[in-house]
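Our preliminary data section would be incomplete without showing what the modeling component actually yields. Below, a chain of 270 amino acids is followed by its predicted structure, encoded as tokens that our downstream tools consume directly.
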Amino acid sequence: MAKEKLNPPPAAINLSVDEVSYRKYHRYLTNVIDTDKKLVIWNEKGRKAEILNKYYIGIGEKNCQNIESVALDGAKTYISSTNKYAVNAMIVYDRFHLMQKLNWAVDMTRKQEFKKARKEENNELIELTNCKQRFILLKKKNNLTEKQNIYLQKLCEINEPIYKAMLLKESFLQVYDYNTPEEAKDYLSGWIKETASSSLEYFKIIAGSFRDKLDYIVNWFKKKISSAISEGFNNKIKRLKRMAYGYKDVEYFKLKIHQHCGYLNPRLSP
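Predicted structure:
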């Protein structure tokens, strides 16, 4: 703690917080990004609330009070830490991670139906639900090619659970047609209620999660900050790890991240 006081991390007004794996077996780094400057400004090993607490303690109470918004992936640990220290910040469960959750539910439904098809030896359904086709289900309907649209239509015709999953995914996305937080909240509340009463196991799971974090989801309509920038940095960090065939020294890895994604980047003007 004394070291953090001597060398306080950079403060920011708008933040994005996310984790990235630096080693297998669930070893993670928490990264804090200044979304205005588009730079990684702090990172630390782990992803518990106590880890993010270190950043907030490091910048001090006054800087914490100046934080206006924090984009998160919905992790309870990050939410509890941010609520404790960044008392004036608007927590935003951003659109990017909501899409990840929806795609997870669709893909888990596909896997479930694929297992059933194999058990029933339904070769047509096996062909349509194997992992080679999963990306068609995860794409937005407007981005599908004509051939992919034909495939999706055929799959939905012969499999009701996947048809329902696609309907729920597409209907959720309609919330972004609304302009005000009040309209969005009303629509989402209806979607959550409908989804929670559906027969789809994995959609019921995310409906419960979205209900608990409804206000954070609606905050996106008040301030459209996104943690998608965190995912962009995560891809850079993963590339660094692959290029070096991994890092045994996590502290050195953290320095390399700041060199490529933060203030240590030599391309930044002094």
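Residues 48 and 77 are 6 Å apart (CA to CA). Strands lie at 14-23, 27-34, 39-45, 69-72, 90-93. Preliminary results of this kind motivate Aim 1 of the renewal.
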